[in-house]
Design goal:
The chain is an alpha+beta fold. It has nine helices and ten strands. The strands form three sheets. Strands 4-3-8-9-10 form a five-stranded mixed β-sheet, sandwiched between helices. A three-stranded antiparallel β-sheet has the order 2-1-7. It starts with a helix and ends with a strand.
Length: 270
């Protein structure tokens, strides 16, 4: 802008000087050839116009840049708020209950925290509609030995499940299926590495996670589903959207825990 102003001012000054000389020559009815004067005036004021246009273009680009920077700053601020909320939900998750298969048609209820501290098991929560959960469990079935060896529990949470399918237990808590209905499910839904979410709190927890995922990735999350990887330390080390890369997740989980590292808490695609 300094260059535009300096050069534009110089061109304008030269133009006005040439213009005053031309006016004086015309007033004196000079017969000299004035074509050179007209050309100089055109060059001077043409340069002024050019610098004005360049300055306007530069200011517009500066406004666009400032807008993009402000958008990124706001997004970063919002992401920091979201991540802080996500971190707080680790404690909420630790208090939720799971039904774990301990034998043929035998299930034991325990909190996520008990599973992690007592059983040293990692937890991967898959939440989505029926198709997203089914596809995720089908993919996990190909690696079922990996889950057993590496102490990984998969917790499928079907969004919008029919309330009639939930079991009300004697203690007043609700589960997502009873033993009879579990026996009717496909084998890949009743593997020993699959734990069922039971009791209160799951609806609120999953809704909060989904809301954050939608805020970062759009409404497509509702169809693609999400995956939340929780280490046996209680830390959520990864959140993903869409198809679950099971092998990569398990390897990443093992490496992250081994290196005592924590990954980005925002929702990643895939």
């Amino acid at each position: 802008m300094f260059l535009y102003t300096a050069l534009g001012s110089g061109a304008a000054l030269g133009g006005f000087i040439t213009l005053s000389g031309l006016a004086a020559a015309i007033a004196k009815h000079s017969t000299d050839d004035l074509s050179a004067e007209y050309l100089n005036i055109a060059i001077d004021f043409g340069a002024v116009l050019a610098f004005l246009l360049l300055a306007r273009w530069d200011l517009q680009k500066a406004d666009e840049l400032n807008e993009r920077v402000q958008t990124k700053l706001n997004q970063k601020k919002n992401n920091q708020i979201i991540r802080a909320k996500m971190k707080q939900r680790e404690e909420q998750l630790s208090l939720l209950n799971l039904d774990i298969q301990v034998g043929q048609d035998q299930y034991q209820t325990a909190t996520v925290e008990a599973v992690q501290t007592g059983g040293k098991q990692h937890v991967i929560i898959v939440a989505g509609n029926r198709k997203a959960v089914r596809d995720a469990l089908l993919g996990a079935n190909l690696l079922k030995m990996e889950f057993a060896i590496r102490d990984v529990l998969i917790v499928p949470y079907e969004i919008g499940a029919n309330a009639a399918d939930k079991l009300i237990k004697p203690d007043g808590s609700s589960g997502f299926a009873n033993n009879a209905s579990k026996n009717q499910k496909p084998s890949w839904e009743t593997q020993t590495y699959v734990a069922q979410p039971v009791g209160d709190g799951w609806d609120e927890y999953v809704k909060a996670e989904l809301d954050d995922a939608v805020a970062q990735n759009g409404d497509k999350v509702k169809d693609e589903g999400i995956a939340i990887v929780v280490a046996n330390t209680g830390q959520i080390i990864r959140r993903g959207v869409g198809k679950v890369p099971w092998r990569n997740m398990v390897e990443e989980l093992e490496k992250t825990v081994k290196d005592d590292d924590v990954l980005d808490l925002s929702f990643l695609q895939g």
